[in-house]
Design a protein that fits this description.
Elements: E1 2-3, H1 7-19, E2 26-28, E3 45-46, H2 57-76, E4 80-82, E5 85-89, H3 95-107, E6 112-116, H4 117-123, E7 131-135, E8 139-141, H5 143-154, E9 157-159, E10 164-170, E11 174-179, E12 184-187, E13 190-192, H6 198-205, E14 211-223, E15 232-235, E16 247-250, E17 256-264, H7 278-285, H8 288-309, H9 311-319, E18 330-332, E19 336-343, E20 353-357, E21 360-365, H10 374-390
Parallel strand pairs: 1-2, 1-13, 2-9, 5-15, 13-21
Antiparallel strand pairs: 3-8, 4-8, 5-7, 6-7, 10-11, 11-12, 14-17, 14-18, 14-19, 15-16, 16-17, 20-21
Helix pairs in contact: 1-5, 1-10, 2-10, 8-9
Length: 392
């Protein structure tokens, strides 16, 4: 059985039934439909894989997954576009990092074009920068639509409104899961793709994941003058953090999303400052890694908080890339929450993290670019689950 009806859980179910036809798969999703959290609340970008360490799961699966995602969307008529994107350096101090991205892109097998100041205007007339790189394999897609198609094509039994409240694992017998409605679902192997709650499900199963999910809210605006931007425009990211900075994304609907800002959320589904769940806040504060992370990165966090509470500060960060933008051009849009795994020593896990236990496979870190990489991730998780099944 698979816990979690986001794009990773549904891709896993799809991969299991493709690799082992006839295998009975049940997906348990606590919401009334698929893709209600990370999958359906992101900027919709098909990432090229340029940012990620060569050889890492993120690099391998994003590069492979981007091509597969485009093919999947084309096959099933799901809205998508391969638009390319610019990564723009606006300060001299960013030029060495931009050059490092060029090298990383080449190591990951991604075609990259280097641009000077004048060439930036060929792609984005309103964007200003000292230098940039153009990454042609980046695109956008309707990931919620992909999730719905995966659910349909998997042949799995999808149970919505099925929040898991208890897991009884007996290595010699199997796994039984109780839902909030009182239903009991039994299976031979459990696959944990619970996203924002993956650490809790792992502990419920009896496995200590050695990490905790610390939720970060991504705050977005919509650009009231979408004509200012043709495609996708990103700043040069800080390699110390898994966040890519405030960027501009023309989506499949033609609108331009600006963001996200990244601030700690006060609930795992904390889509606004007013959403507070004391038990979840207490759980975060009880994890030593949360305090260690705060000590290490408080300056970065202070800047994100300032942009969260001050629209002027957020606008100023956007104007570094797009000088023509005004505060009135930014209209609040739906936020998202990133399920970020943090280790005991405060390390922000920067790669996908998949671990196994008795009769269980746990996906413990799968934020961006997991939607892009969902098809390869699903195959890897399915391979591990089927290997466990075969060993019983």
């Amino acid at each position: 059985m698979v816990i979690g009806g986001g794009i990773v859980g549904l891709s896993t179910a799809y991969a299991i039934t493709r690799a082992a036809p006839g295998t009975r798969v049940t997906v348990l999703e606590k919401e009334p439909g698929p893709a209600r959290h990370q999958t359906g609340r992101n900027s919709g970008v098909i990432h090229s894989g340029i940012y990620y360490r060569p050889g890492s799961l993120k690099a391998r699966y994003a590069v492979r997954g981007a091509a597969e995602m485009v093919k999947f969307c084309a096959e099933y008529g799901i809205a998508h576009a391969v638009t390319g994107k610019l990564i723009v350096a606006t300060e001299r101090s960013e030029l060495p990092r931009l050059h490092s991205l060029v090298q990383r892109g080449r190591e990951n097998g991604i075609p990259v074009r280097e641009l000077g100041t004048a060439q930036i205007a060929e792609y984005e007339p309103e964007v200003r920068g000292l230098a940039a790189i153009h990454v042609g394999t980046t695109g956008v897609a309707d990931f919620a639509g992909v999730a719905r198609q995966l659910a349909e094509a998997s042949g799995a039994e999808i149970r919505y409104d099925a929040r898991v409240v208890r897991v009884d694992r007996r290595p010699e017998l199997g796994v039984a899961v109780r839902t909030a409605a009182g239903d009991v679902v039994r299976g031979r192997v459990l696959v944990n793709c619970a996203g924002l709650y993956c650490d809790e499900v792992a502990r419920m199963t009896g496995d200590e994941p050695e990490m905790r999910i610390v939720p970060f809210r991504g705050e977005y605006y919509e650009l009231a003058r979408p004509g200012l931007v043709r495609g996708l425009v990103y700043p040069v990211p800080d390699p110390a953090f898994p966040f890519l900075g405030v960027h501009l994304t023309r989506g499949i609907d033609g609108g331009v999303h600006v963001g996200p800002n990244a601030v700690p959320a006060l609930a795992r589904e904390g889509y606004g400052w007013g959403v507070v769940r004391p038990r979840e806040v207490a759980g975060t504060l009880a994890w030593p890694g949360a305090w260690a992370m705060a000590r290490q990165h408080w300056r970065y966090g202070a800047g994100e908080f300032r942009r969260s509470v001050s629209k002027r500060a957020f606008t100023d960060s956007v104007r570094r890339l797009l000088p023509a933008v005004e505060a009135a051009d930014l209209v609040r849009a739906a936020p998202g929450v990133r399920a970020q795994a943090v280790l005991r020593d405060g390390t922000l896990v920067d790669d996908f993290l998949i671990r196994e236990g008795a009769r269980a496979v746990h996906v413990l870190n799968a934020p961006s670019p997991a939607a892009t990489a969902s098809l390869p991730i699903g195959r890897e998780v399915a391979r591990r689950a089927l290997a466990l099944l075969g060993s019983l």
